[in-house]
Amino acid sequence: MNEIEHQKSVFVEEKQDMDCSPILVGGNVYNKREIEQYLANPTLNADAYYEPTKNTGYASIDRPHLKFYKRNALDAVLPKMKMYDYLYLKNQNNLNNYALNYYGRKITYASMFDNIEKVAKSFIQMGIEENDYVVIAMPNTPESVYILFALNRIGAVAVELDPRTTKNDVCQTLEESQARWYITIEDCSIFIDEILTENMHLKQQIEKVLLLSPTQSLPMGINILSDFNDFLSRKKGSKPKIPENNKFINWKTFLKYGENCSDIIDSKYHENTVVEIIYSSGTTAMPKPIQYTNETFTSMTRQLELGENCYAIGDKNLDIIPMFLGFGSNSALFVILCFGLENILIPIPVIDELPELIKKYHPNHILGAPIHMKVLLKYLRENPSDLEDLSFLKSIVSGSAHLESTIQYDLDSELEKRGCKTKVGPGYGQNEGGPGLSFSSDRFLQLKKPGCSGYPMIFTTISIFDTDTDEELQYGQNIEGEIRYKTPCSMKGYAFHREEDTKKFYKKGRDGSIWCCSGDLGMIDADGGIYITGRKMRQIRRGGFKFSPTEIEDFIMQKVPEIESCALVAKPDNVQENIPVLFYSVKAEYKKDSALIRSRIIKLCSTLKEYKIPEIYIQKDELPITPNLKVDFKALEKETLEKNIMSD
After folding, report:
1. Domain annotation covers residue 220
2. What sign has the CA pseudo-torsion 157, 162, 164, 169?
3. Under 8 Å between Cβ of 85 and 28
4. How confident is the model over 277-319, as pLDDT tens digits?
5. pLDDT digits (tens, 9 = 90+) for 439-473
6. Range of the domain at 633
7. How far apart are CA 125 and CA 595, in angstroms?
8. C-alpha dist (Å) from residue 264 to 128, 259, 402
9. Which CATH number covers residue 608?
10. Full DSSP string of 124-136
């Protein structure tokens, strides 16, 4: 080897060493090349879109939705690292910008990361170890954020519960998880004290109950006033005192434990490790504990980054989705923070208050459910001189459930009148899928596809299957089948010995690959657009026929604009198998015409095929909803059984 060749060889070796040089992130060592791959966006300089060449008629092979992605998107590498580490890497140059906004108190990314470390140290000092389960029943507060990511740093698992969860369900979760810690708000102290008093096994199992006040991180003046009001309320007896229980610990005392911690707080990254458990919505079956991994979170962010999103560092997001929902902890929190946005935390579940929050905060981005879209549309219609300038809105996403096209396009029109340049973007997903599977970019929305819930994310494959034969069906043929998918964001199965449920959720395809079975019925158009037509479990069987209630609900909503919402459920019948019962609510301004509207609905339904015609019509002030902001079909079905409802 001559001198020139030797120098070239040395240069190559040095460059390889440099590319593989170790970098410490949150206690884990990654090499420089890995990190560069995880952060690189190959679509930034791409000006052309994919041109799918395959035309087999099967979405799993053709992947027609790729036409909406830039040509180099598939060159990206999905992160293989802890979600905390990825969050830090994405914001390492963004530390002075605001991460959280809690009633006007703004917390920088630097301060957020500092608080996460303090919480992690306290957990370590108090004996929380890697793989431990910690049950959390909290609203959206800065402390909830610190706790989630602190547990990720030490390798423990956050088990998220709705603070309104019943006593029996809390007991079941604690017993199944064998959690030694329970975290909740002070107002629930009597509730958890009763559980520990009544259940000796749990009294021995639970070591500490961390009680937090939602006022903990409020701006100073508001905080003092709120604490004083709480004190007065307890003094007068109108607000119950916190029970004297040596297991209870408050936030300030908890943080003191970590002040002198010198232990290593970061666990090592292992692929497919469970980091969070959330519960399914339970709209048609019992809620199930769903296991999320680091990859569930990091892959979601990465896929959205490779699509045509409009997130920019410093933008403001209105966070109205609770963290105990997959949509809340992942899409509305983790993804938002990874993009460097200011996340406005709203602790109380919000529906009717949405317009006032928009007026107060002027957010650039809103992630909501169809019920939020309905509330916003109603407000804008009834208050034409209010919220006149909505030009600050960059994105409005509707997830959680199917959004009726009439609501979508009417809201688009109202937004446009107020200077908003974006349109409502429906998405599709389910908790088991991480939870996002599809979204709608501005380019896709220009195609105007009524009833469409967007197209799959870049590394996600979605197709439809025959529910009887498990054969994949062709897309673009107006054929209905069960929606099944493959995604890097998928759950790691159901927790706490739900092996049988997990097996039912997965099915093997013709090529041997594993598909997730959504339980949703739908169609896929020629562009890969997804249309939800109903649920397998919500199908109504009557006189030897079966049909999807969603089909009837959409039909009525389109033809009777005076209706606020409607739901078709089945009442068991000895002769016909089931009798369809239609529940509906009328918009406030039309309630005086309720009798006329009822006649119109009955006349309209008479045009349906005979087995699809409802036999009972029930008007309600409003339909019940689940904590996941979906119509509570189980509650309506229960009502048909409990009441002596007669056919019309």
Report:
1. yes
2. negative
3. yes
4. 999 865 545 689 999 999 999 999 999 999 988 999 999 999 9
5. 999 999 999 999 999 999 999 999 999 988 889 99
6. 540-642
7. 66
8. 13, 14, 46
9. 3.30.300.30
10. HHTT--TT-EEEE
